Amino acid sequence: MKKTGIAKSIALALGLSAASVAQAADVEVLHWWTSGGEAAALDVLKQDLETQGVGWKDMPVAGGGGEAAMTTLRARVTAGNAPTAVQMLGFDISDWANEGALGNLNAVASEENWDSVVPTALQAFAKHDGNWISAPVNVHSTNWVWISKSALDAAGGKAPTTWEELVAVMDAMQANGITPLAHGGQAWQDATVFDAVVLSMGNDFYQQSMIDLDPAALSSDTMVEVFNRMAKLRSYVDDNFSGRDWNLASAMVIEGKAGMQMMGDWAKGEFLKAGQTPGEDFVCIRFPGTQGSVTFNSDQFAMFGQGDGENDAQLKMAASIMNPVFQSAFNVVKGSVPARTDVPNTDFDDCGKKGMADLAEANDAGSLFGSMAHGHAAPAAVKNAVYDVVTQHFNGDMSSEEAAEELANSIEAVM
Ligand code: BGC
After folding, report:
1. Based on the domain organization, do 111 and 228 belong to the same domain?
2. In this model, does residue 79 exceed pLDDT 60?
3. Are residues 176 and 274 in the same domain?
4. Which domain holds residue 240?
5. Residues 44 and 167 in one domain
6. Of the candidates 306, 330, 348, which is a domain's last residue?
7. Are residues 291 and 307 in the same domain?
């Protein structure tokens, strides 16, 4: 179906009349979807709203994890000029809800019965005091590895399932003359890899260290080993990794200049945008040792208080986001999976189908955890403390022992 076709069918499914289409105002949307794959996904949303007469004013602020976007948001709200709708993650949503800044979406949520189709792990952030305050557009997860198929074939052809196998594959890639690990040296990207390495030490360890923030786990020998592995991974990146944007790291794998990238499934959006196909051009696996477990994050749109006209547009946007047809169309392009449990996997590629199955399995098994790097494990102050230590260790002379100690101390200091 063409994008406009999808948008029209969503408008029809929502029962929007020509009159209501004509009345809606614009939305100004603050987001960090600036890469090629992200922009393609954003377009699905823009076009859908356009069909309903809701205009789009773009407010992009690049940077995964949303740190920069949240700084801009704070400045805008302080200046009394909040954007209409804001992409937000986990604890950032809860923080703004606690400040009483977010609009109430109950009218559309109850009409469309969000309570019965949105997983409870997402409702934990999308609802505040029993009220719906944001519309979840997707579920991403961070414990993925994206591998060039040709580089993997040249390195023996077997996707690694353990740390030792991963190291062996990266050694082989290095011997074959390519950069084993495509990475962008930005704090949030270092932290995204860290999520996966912590999870690979076991579900209990992720729970204790990243969710419970238990000082004993944070400073444990296991955490020292996590940092040792981060240092080992650091030895496989190229000399120019510092400051590189994540999508440029994806491009290195797409072009066969690098073997793999450890990144959330938004990376898949870049591979698809470049015309690549899972299984043929690239391979998606869970970070070795984490199959069966998922560290998730969910992009949600929260609405800031506006006048009546804007409020109409906000509710339309929220309804559109949660429409099952839209959820499929958008997430197929974005690389994520739907935020509703009742969306068929028919239109998704093999990695998308795997993502949906893994999420359901992890949810049932109690091995679904909020991503620390992407704001779903702990509030921003803790997340930023983790960013600081992980990035200092990754880029400097800090020993793994010092890093584990520092992690426990700096988290304690902000709690
Ligand atoms: C968001 C994704 C986004 C990625 C990179 C994550 O925090 O959840 O939607 O694609 O950052 O920008």
Report:
1. no
2. yes
3. yes
4. 144-295+356-414
5. no
6. 348
7. no
* Same domain as 83, residue 64: yes
Taking 60 as the threshold, does the pLDDT of residue 131 lie above it? Answer: yes
Summarised one tens digit per residue, pLDDT across range 331-369 is 999 999 999 999 999 999 999 999 999 999 999 999 999
**pTM of the predicted structure, to 2 decimals:** 0.94
Confidence band for 306, pLDDT divided at 50, 70 and 90: confident
Nearest CA to ligand 1 atom 4: 64
Residues within a 6 A CB radius of ligand 1:
32, 38, 64-66, 89, 140, 266, 297, 299, 374
Give the residue-averaged pLDDT of 126-140.
Answer: 97
Q: What separation in Å is there between the alpha carbon of 91 and the centre of ligand 1?
A: 15
Reported as a pLDDT band with limits 50, 70 and 90, residue 160 is: very high
Q: What is the mean pLDDT of the chain?
A: 94
Q: What spacing in Å lies between the alpha carbon of 345 and ligand 1's midpoint? A: 22
- Among residues 397, 335, 367, 366, the alpha carbon closest in space to that of 33 is found at 335
In terms of domains, do 111 and 194 share one? Answer: no
CATH number at 225 reads: 3.40.190.10
- Which pLDDT score, from 0 to 100, does residue 21 have? 40
User: Using CB atoms within 10 A of its CB, is residue 197 exposed (0-12), middle (13-18) or buried (19+)?
Assistant: buried
176 and 265 inside one domain: yes
Is residue 303 located within the same domain as residue 286?
A: no
Domain end marker among 311, 329, 348: 348
Question: Residues in the chain, how many?
Answer: 415
Q: Whose alpha carbon is nearest atom 8 of ligand 1?
A: 299
For residue 14, pLDDT over 90 is answered with no
Work out how many domains the chain is built from and give that number. Answer: 2
